[in-house]
Specification:
This protein has 367 residues and is of the alpha+beta class. The chain is built from eleven helices and twelve strands. The structure holds adenosine-5'-diphosphate.
């Protein structure tokens, strides 16, 4: 009989001890405050959060004293309610001992015995990272929605502009055919001017249309970037010959990518690296890759005119150009397009440059 009782006592002691270990190892702040708001229990996370020891806290501190006037003013309504026997749950912003602002989710549960509230249990969880992740997901969803709207808008514009463009072209052809011999030299010059503008508009609308359909569902595949690069270089053969450009590639990987788009990305960067060359300097372009955790970082370095620091970010905006067409032909779509391709591969693109000497475009791919 006696042994039975001892065993029970031993077991219950052990359970109490274990309970304390469990509470002390919990990531949540756990505490018990009596109805006079005096601390009767606090786990390790709780008392260290306030820079105290358990002995400092238990039986000695009142809630108001511990948390400070400002914080107490915010939690007071919930304390009043839980002491009336009602469960409470709320979010609370705190500044921890390191001075960081943290978001917490707090639960107060009344301790009721014989219909009387004896005190309340506190559980407080740090939800800062969770909230940040949630916020991040929300922002991505908003961004994706905005991108979709942009795509739809770009598609409508580019699509709808094609028809009047075609009409103008046909009327010009009619004028050319029927009135060519009656027109003065200057009028023919104007018509040629219109032709050139039309061509440019066609280039812009086509660029816009390609941009807008870029995010449509495509198949990821294993892509040998050496092979893609070779095809791009074949396509640019004439420009490479004309400019004597020297292109060197190292360590290019086999990676998961959207093959066609990946090719356009390389093509645009190499075309720019050649186009924005320095006068009297043979373009030298080095392409290389560095493995990342679950992805790749690829860089395209040139020895061209470079880009001033203030323009490093804005060149990735659609239609953003730093030069007029007399200096360098272009539409300002290329890098906007590159950015979108990189984002399609869950990566980022950026550039570093020494103005007058070189530019290095970096992009990552995590597809
Ligand atoms: P585009 O070449 O049609 O103007 P892009 O979007 O490809 O349009 O490039 C935007 C601008 O960024 C260019 O007008 C040019 O000023 C600058 N740029 C792009 N690539 C380079 C480069 N490799 N070196 C120097 N400037 C560059």
């Amino acid at each position: 009989m006696n042994t039975e009782k001892n065993r029970y006592n031993n077991e219950s002691l052990e359970i109490n001890h274990l309970g304390l270990i469990v509470a002390d190892n919990a990531k949540s702040l756990l505490a018990y405050w009596d109805k006079d708001q005096i601390c009767r229990f606090a786990n390790n996370t709780y008392y260290t959060r306030f820079g105290k020891t358990r002995e400092d806290l238990i039986g000695k501190y009142k809630l108001r004293e511990l948390v400070g006037e400002e914080s107490y003013a915010r939690i007071h309504p919930y304390v009043q309610e839980v002491l009336k026997g009602k469960d409470q749950q709320f979010e609370h912003t705190i500044v921890n001992l390191e001075g960081e602002t943290r978001q917490t989710k707090v639960t107060y549960t009344p301790d009721i015995e014989d219909g009387e509230v004896k005190g309340f249990f506190v559980k407080s969880i740090d939800i800062t990272e969770l909230k940040q992740a949630h916020e991040h997901e929300k922002n991505i969803a908003i961004l994706q929605e905005k991108n979709k709207e942009m795509d739809a808008f770009a598609k409508i514009i580019s699509h709808d502009l094609r028809e009047p463009l075609l009409n103008i072209k046909q009327y010009l052809m009619l004028i050319d055919n029927e009135y060519k011999h009656h027109l003065e030299e200057s009028a023919i010059g104007y018509i040629n001017g219109i032709h050139r503008s039309l061509e440019r508009m066609e280039m812009l609308t086509e660029g816009l249309l390609n941009y807008s359909i870029l995010s449509q569902a495509k198949e990821l595949e294993q892509v040998d970037s050496n092979e893609v690069l070779n095809r791009v270089l074949e396509k640019l053969e004439l420009t490479i010959q004309e400019t004597n450009a020297f292109i060197k590639a190292e360590n290019l990987p086999i990676l998961n990518a959207y093959k066609f788009e990946f090719g356009i990305l390389l093509e645009n960067l190499i075309t720019n690296a050649i186009k924005y060359r320095r006068e009297n300097t043979i373009p030298e372009i080095a392409i290389s890759a560095v493995p990342l955790h679950k992805g790749w970082q690829i860089e395209v370095k040139d020895n061209g005119i470079g880009i001033e620091e203030k323009n490093l970010e804005k060149i990735f905006n659609m239609f953003q150009r730093l030069h007029n067409r007399k200096e360098y032909e272009g539409t300002g779509i290329g890098l906007g397009y590159c950015k979108k391709i990189v984002e399609l591969h869950k990566g980022t693109i950026w550039v570093e440059s020494i103005p007058g000497l070189s530019s290095t475009f970096y992009f990552t791919i995590f597809a």
